Amino acid sequence: MTVRPQDIRSALLAREEIALIDLREEAEFARGHPLFAAQIPLRRIEAEARWRIPRADTRIVVYDDSEGLGGEGLVGSAIEQLRALGFTQVDALEGGLSGWREAGYELFEDVNSYSKAFGELVEHRRHTPSLPANDVQALIDEKADIAILDARRFEEYATMSIPGGVSTPGAELVLRARAVAPDPDTTIIVNCAGRTRSIIGAQSLVNAGLPNRIFALRNGTIGWTLAGQELETGQQRRAPAPPSPFVAEAREKAREVAYRAGVRRIVWDELAHLRQDTARTLYLYDVRLPEDFAAGHLPGFRNAQGGQLVQETDHFAPVRGARIVLADDLGPRADMTASWLAQLGWEVFVVEWPQAVALETGGDGAPTPRGPEGRYKRPYEGTDNAAAAMQAYLDWEFGLVEQLRRDGTHGFYVI
Question: Is this prediction's pTM over 0.85?
Answer without folding.
Answer: yes
